[in-house]
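Before drawing any conclusions, I looked closely at one protein's amino acid sequence and its backbone structure tokens, quoted below without any editing.
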Amino acid sequence: MALPPAQDAATGKPFKRSRKVVVDVSLCRYAIIKRCLKDRDFRLVRAKKSEVEWDIWWSDRGELLKDARRLNAFQKVNHFPSMEDICRKDFLANNLNAMRKLLPDEYDFFPRSFLVPAERVELQQCMDNDKRGATYIVKPRTLCQGKGISLIQSFQKLSTKDPCVVQKYIHNPLLIDGFKFDLRIYVLVVSVDPLVVYVFRNGLARFCTTPFQAPKRSNLHQTRMHLTNYAINKKSKDFVKSVDESTGSKRSLAFVMQHLQDDHGMDPCAVWADVCDIVLKTLLAIQPRLAASYRNFFGADDVKGRQWGPAAFEILGFDIMLDEQGKAWMVEVNHAPSFAGDSLLDRNIKTPLIAQALDILAVTNETKRSFQAVRIH
């Protein structure tokens, strides 16, 4: 993805300055984000139609920036280079498998995963040796929203020839009202060198729409029993729209934490500490790579990181599952979590989230003015 230069390529004239913070939303489709930006009196523009130099480039896509070195020191983009190292299923599995070999006790939160075809032999040995008839989830390497996922209980059922990740199924998931669920945890990364991360206190719980039964040959095809992906379950006739944060097929993280204490006798503070631990360890696994890529893309001097703040930030979506003992498992990381406001619950969770992120980033027009003053002198 190429970013617009700080001056008009045709005329060579600099873009017009704005007294407001300018955000380019050419590749941002979410109304919640745009509303939060407007609430701060930020000016929203589109690169192809505007001659105004932007302060923030906000994109729903996580593509690498081809000409990020051309950014002025006050400008920010909302993705870090190399974040795909945890946001692509095969890269995530490769990195966390490597860390588990080095620190097995610290990285036991990621279900055992195999990269196919590279680890096809190891997968077969593992499945053949598993006398309990364990279940595995087959995930296409790059697809999202539950597309192409299947469940198998024997190696012979692995029919796909495409590259994929085969991950051990969490056989004893914690249930609420008889349904399997996962937690979408929102994480703001504001710096990669040093690593600075904020984990938002509230988030979403996404529920299956078919009551859970232990996986067996006769129900492996029932994706809405085993897969918590919202994109899959929202199409079910059994999907229940949320009227508040404690009912329906999508609920709040705050409700789940209270439910853990009230109905399961678990300590929500301990669970939350485990979640934060998982987030930090996952990012630490690729921090050297993130730091090197940042320097490569934004310049080795890293002037942005010293005087006007880092040139990038990113909001990630960590998908966490709990088992019946309350152990937290990290399933996936998403570098483009949805900010759609499909329900009042979505809006009540995501609007404060974006507002808090903007508070932390603290972008003001003074940032641009101070840069311009330094450049003039």
